[in-house]
């Protein structure tokens, strides 16, 4: 506690401390806002945009392990290397360049490999005087093209599943948003329901209190009458107001029973109804009924206010 009071005192008296606290709070607020904005842009907006681009077949959205022109460039380079090699090693009259180019494009390196097999018979001589090094370099380029073809196959698989990858990328963030939305709505609806329930219960309690107060007032009139107040009577000695006031009491008691089923706990309803029945029994005196009303106030009063 002393440290708390000391901190409060410093905040109240030291402008530097207040400024540092304000800067700290602003920094944290800025960090929080930037984090939320980055999350929204990078994990919500961008993945959804990628999904929409994929659905629209937008070429800029396609994922790839290699550039779209890389394979064509490597293959064209191999074709030129093979054509130049064959042109330099054989006479042009014996070469069908169109067929050779098509064979190279389809991966047929028969001409190059046959020359390579011939050079292997005298490798040292072929390396020094022949084209064996050039042949090896062509095969290296062919290996590079084969690797590019393999990557292109994987690339096509990725492109065919791009929409799936887009949904997978967006799913975690969308799930987080969905969970936050449900949590907020549950809290909001719970708070709204609780406020509505409390307001409704307050209205019911007010109506019960008013009704029970009316019963108490009517029973009070009966008590005064019973004690000898001046009232008109029938020939049998009963007051003209007895039936009227008892009828009003009966109506209020029916009203109280209906309200009690919504306000009182279930385990108290039977006892409450029995107490109400005592108020309509004709053989009970008015004073007994008044005591019964007071007992109801004492026992159930905390549920009526």
TrEMBL record:
Cellular location(s): Mitochondrion membrane
Entry-linked Pfam families: NCA2
Keywords: Membrane, Mitochondrion, Transmembrane, Transmembrane helix
Name of this chain's protein: Nuclear control of ATPase protein 2
Topological category with respect to the lipid bilayer: Multi-pass membrane protein
Entry-linked PANTHER family: NUCLEAR CONTROL OF ATPASE PROTEIN 2 (PTHR28234:SF1)
InterPro entries, A to Z: NCA2-like
Gene Ontology cellular component terms for the protein in this record: mitochondrial outer membrane
Domain of life of the native organism: Eukaryota
Statement: the UniProt record of this protein carries the keyword Cytoplasm: no
């Amino acid at each position: 506690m002393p440290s708390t009071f000391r901190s409060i005192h410093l905040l109240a008296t030291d402008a530097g401390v207040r400024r540092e606290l304000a800067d700290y709070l602003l920094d944290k607020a800025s960090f929080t806002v930037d984090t939320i904005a980055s999350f929204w842009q990078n994990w919500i907006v961008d993945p959804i945009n990628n999904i929409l681009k994929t659905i629209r077949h937008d070429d800029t959205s396609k994922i790839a392990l290699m550039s779209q022109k890389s394979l064509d460039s490597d293959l064209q380079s191999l074709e030129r290397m093979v054509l130049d090699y064959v042109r330099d090693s054989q006479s042009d009259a014996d070469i069908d360049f169109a067929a050779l180019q098509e064979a190279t494009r389809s991966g047929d390196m028969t001409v190059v490999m046959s020359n390579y097999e011939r050079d292997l018979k005298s490798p040292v001589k072929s390396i020094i005087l022949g084209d064996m090094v050039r042949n090896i370099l062509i095969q290296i380029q062919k290996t590079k093209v084969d690797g590019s073809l393999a990557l292109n196959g994987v690339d096509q698989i990725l492109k065919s599943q791009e929409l799936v990858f887009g949904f997978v990328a967006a799913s975690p963030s969308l799930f987080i948003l969905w969970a936050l939305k449900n949590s907020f709505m549950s809290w909001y609806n719970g708070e709204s329901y609780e406020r509505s329930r409390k307001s409704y219960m307050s209205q019911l309690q007010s109506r019960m209190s008013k009704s029970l107060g009316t019963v108490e007032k009517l029973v009070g009139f009966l008590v005064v009458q019973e004690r000898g107040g001046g009232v008109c009577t029938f020939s049998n000695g009963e007051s003209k107001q007895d039936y009227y006031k008892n009828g009003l009491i009966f109506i209020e008691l029916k009203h109280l029973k209906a309200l009690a089923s919504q306000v009182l706990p279930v385990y108290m309803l039977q006892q409450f109804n029995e107490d109400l029945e005592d108020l309509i029994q004709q053989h009970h005196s008015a004073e007994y009924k008044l005591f019964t009303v007071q007992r109801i106030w004492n026992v159930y009063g905390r549920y009526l206010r």
